[in-house]
Structures are given as structure tokens and as C-alpha cells.
């Protein structure tokens, strides 16, 4: 008995992280690390190091189309697996950082790159990604927006000037993706921030989808809220921003500097605009899946000065993403 007591004492002295980092792969292909309040669930990355060049080609085509009249930025957003995957689970995922930087290497030199890997790694001990959802957290988007504004040479409001909101008992999409009860039993706080000391109005063109999630109709432009409130425990809390993806959004702010931004994005990009109301006088948001107009005409009509591509790494590698962006130039 003395032998076992000695072993138990030694185990008690070991850092808890040795146990919290234990990783497993679910039948649905989701990686789960840790347990309880330290649990984190994320999707593996499937992109190859030499892939994703269609995305680079699409970004370059926008730069060639608009020339010096419009600043073009490319921000490929790391997903959680690139920041938090422990060594023992790396055999289940591809090298996301090397893959994304290969895309950056194929961009026209006049495209301004917003490489977030170092930034996200620097803040990895903060709540920059949701533990139970496939999205990043609003705090992660704040740091990304700050890096973008710095690159664009624009003012940026400190987070201390924002109002903090908390939705408790949040369990996001990773429970539905994994069907793993451990994820369901590891709720977290969803924390988001709303800007102060700046006025803004939000106008939407909302889309109606038919079969295969294709746009079959759209409503007339209408004003609405940029932020939507959700109660504690609501699994859709990430839809706080613009109520999701099924719209083209225009935000007109009280900032006056002649800069007008167009964000081309997937759902990760939804959390970015609210941190830029102090930086741009207008922000337009177009989803990579839902847009019905010719984007060249849209840019000229709205006097857009800056275009930011803001897609997560998975979307950047999906052919449908760069195919849509190229189609927007022609449709």
C-alpha cells in the first residue's frame, strides 16, 4: 500500500496540463482535447501545403481589376486547430500555417498581407477562440481587426472603450458536429463587445435561399440592428453579428475620413466589422456564398477604397470560395 500511496502523491504533484492535454479523435473526425472547463473541440485542417492557389489567384484578380484605386488586403484566419492542437494529435491534421503562408507567397506584391498566426499565438492563453464552436471568439477578431487597421494606417479604438456583453452557458456547433456528450457538458461564456462613442446605422439586403442553398430572391434594403441579443444557453450566439450570413450589409458610421471598406468573408468575418467603426466611414460586408450583383459595379457605386478578404483557412482552401469571388467579378 505504501508503494501505491507514493505513486498517488507523485501524480498529485504533476501539472494538471499533462492530463488536460489528452486528445482523442471522435468518429465524426472532431479532435477533442482536455475535459471540463479546459475542454476544446476543433476540426482538423485538410489543406495541402501546395494547395489553395486558386484563392491566391482570385485575390490577385481583384487587385488587377481595381489597380491602385483600391487597396487590397488578404487575411486568412487560422482556425483553432492551428493554435491549440497538441503534439499528440498533429497526425490527425495538416500543417495549416505552412499551407496558408504558401498562399501568401503567391499573392501579387501589391496585395497587403494580414498574417495572423503570430498574433493568435501571442494571445493563445486568452479567450480568442470558442472551445465548443468552430468559430473564433470575438476577442480573436478584435486582435485581427487591430492588426488590419494598423496595416491600413487607420485609427483603432482600444477594447477598454467598448461595452462588454456575456452570454452564459454557451455550447456551440462542435457538439452538433461531434455528438460527444463531453462537449455538451463543457459550456462556456460567449463574450462580445459593442462600440461606444461612435454613431452607426446598419442597412441589410437579405437573401432567400432555395435548393442547394442558392439565392432565389432578395428583399429591398432595410435598416436593422448590427448586434442581435441572445439569451443564456442559446447555441446560436455567434449570430449576434448581423444575424448571420444571409445578407449583404452596409454600415454607415460617424467617422469621417473618406475610407470605405468592403469585407469579403465567410462567417468568421462577421465578428470583425464592429471593431472598425472608428476606422472607416462605411463598411460593406459581402459573404463568399451569397451575393447577386456585379462586384465591380458595387465597388464603384459605393466609392470603396479598401477591400479585405477575410476567410478562415478552410474556406480559403475550398474551391467554391475562390470560384464565387471570381464569379462576382463577372455576374
Description of the structure:
About 5% of the residues have low confidence. The longest helix is centred in the middle third of the chain and has 15 residues. This protein has 331 residues and is of the alpha/beta class. The radius of gyration is 21 Å and the shape is globular. Helix 3 packs parallel to helix 12. The strands form 3 sheets. Strands 4, 5, 8, 9, 10, 11, 12, 13 and 14 form a 9-stranded mixed beta sheet that branches. Helices cover 30% and strands 23% of the residues.
What's the pLDDT, averaged over the residues?
93
Helix content: 25-40%
Order of helices and strands: HHEEEHEHHEHHEHHEEEEEEEHEHH
The end-to-end span amounts to 77 Å
Number of helices: 12
The structural class is alpha/beta
User: Would you identify the regions where 5 or more consecutive residues have pLDDT less than 50?
Assistant: 6-20
- Multimerization status: single chain
| Silhouette | globular
Rg, nearest Å: 21 Å
Fraction in beta strands: 15-25%
Note the main sheet: 9 strands, mixed
Number of strands: 14
Amino acid at each position: 500500500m505504501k508503494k501505491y500511496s507514493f505513486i498517488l502523491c507523485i501524480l498529485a504533484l504533476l501539472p494538471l496540463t499533462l492530463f488536460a492535454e489528452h486528445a482523442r479523435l471522435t468518429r465524426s473526425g472532431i479532435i477533442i482535447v482536455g475535459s471540463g472547463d479546459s475542454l476544446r473541440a476543433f476540426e482538423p485542417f485538410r489543406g495541402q501545403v501546395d494547395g489553395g492557389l486558386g484563392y491566391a489567384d482570385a485575390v490577385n484578380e481583384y487587385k488587377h481589376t481595381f489597380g491602385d484605386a483600391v487597396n487590397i488586403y488578404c487575411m486568412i484566419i487560422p482556425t483553432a486547430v492551428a493554435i491549440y492542437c497538441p503534439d499528440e494529435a498533429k497526425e490527425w491534421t495538416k500543417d495549416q500555417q505552412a499551407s496558408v503562408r504558401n498562399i501568401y507567397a503567391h499573392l501579387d506584391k501589391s496585395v497587403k498581407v494580414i498574417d495572423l498566426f503570430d498574433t493568435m499565438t501571442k494571445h493563445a492563453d486568452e479567450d480568442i477562440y470558442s472551445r465548443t464552436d468552430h468559430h473564433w471568439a470575438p476577442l480573436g477578431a478584435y486582435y485581427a481587426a487591430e492588426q488590419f487597421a494598423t496595416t491600413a494606417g487607420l485609427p483603432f479604438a482600444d477594447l477598454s472603450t467598448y461595452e462588454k456583453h456575456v452570454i452564459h452557458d454557451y455550447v456551440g456547433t462542435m457538439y452538433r458536429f461531434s455528438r460527444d456528450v463531453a462537449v455538451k457538458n463543457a459550456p462556456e461564456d460567449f463574450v462580445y463587445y459593442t462600440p461606444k462613442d461612435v454613431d452607426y446605422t446598419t442597412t441589410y439586403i437579405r437573401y432567400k435561399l432555395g435548393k442547394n442553398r442558392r439565392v432565389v430572391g432578395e428583399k429591398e434594403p432595410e435598416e436593422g440592428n448590427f448586434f442581435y441579443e441572445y439569451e443564456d444557453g442559446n447555441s446560436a450566439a455567434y449570430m449576434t453579428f448581423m444575424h448571420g450570413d444571409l445578407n449583404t450589409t452596409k454600415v454607415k458610421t460617424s467617422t469621417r475620413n473618406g475610407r470605405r471598406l468592403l469585407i469579403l468573408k465567410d462567417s468568421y468575418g462577421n465578428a470583425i466589422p464592429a471593431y472598425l467603426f472608428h476606422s472607416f466611414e462605411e463598411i460593406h460586408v459581402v459573404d463568399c456564398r451569397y451575393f447577386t450583383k456585379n462586384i465591380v459595379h458595387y465597388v464603384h457605386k459605393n466609392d470603396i477604397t479598401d477591400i479585405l478578404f477575410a476567410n478562415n483557412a478552410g474556406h480559403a482552401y475550398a474551391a467554391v470560395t475562390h470560384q464565387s469571388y471570381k464569379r462576382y467579378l463577372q455576374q
